[in-house]
Amino acid sequence: MLKLYGFALSNYYNKLKLALLEKGVPFEEVLVSFGIEGKQGKSPLGKVPYLETEDGFLCESQVILDYIEARWPTPALVPADPWRAAKQRELLTFLELHVELCARQLYPQAFFGATLPEKFTARVKADLVKNLAAFKQLAVFGPYVAGDTFSAADCAAYVHLPLAALASKIVYGEDLVAAAGIDWKAYVKLIEQRPTALKVAADRKADQDRALAAARAKTAAAQ
Known about the structure:
Blueprint: E1 2-6, H1 11-23, E2 27-31, E3 50-53, E4 56-59, H2 61-71, H3 82-104, H4 107-112, H5 118-138, H6 152-172, H7 176-179, H8 184-191, H9 195-222
Parallel strand pairs: 1-2
Antiparallel strand pairs: 1-3, 3-4
């Protein structure tokens, strides 16, 4: 059986989890956290998620998503038509390279208590505003991000857009995703009509509660 390594607070982990659930592929979840310890030969940079198959380990979420689609092509999450498939990969690239990776620079301050230099956050804001406007030009939301069918692009958009929105709201006092004219809240509600997405959301909430409880216990022990 496949083993998906990571944790349910990771948006990239949830991207793959949602795809596997949509395809009905049996898999085991293995909880691992940050850092390289114990990941040698599995994830060279110590990043999650990574996947264990009968042939060995795979890392990098898009590589894994492509593997899942190739091995279990039904139900399809990528169109058979080359043009439509390319347009979907274009959306995925914009989501992850230009939106999520840009917003990720804010995560230390938004979620982990760091204070980033004002000059740095100003630069990130300018980039994120520009990149979100570009993504909006490509996104269809008809009603799904790539058109009228749930796809691999939705597996990514569902987990990335809310994080970019929340991080920008915390750091700048403004949801830059919504400000770009992207109604991500309505989109998330649409996706969460799917039982698979509801499971991902419920497991993410449970992992968040677990992480908070562990942090409280660590603080109490240090006092």
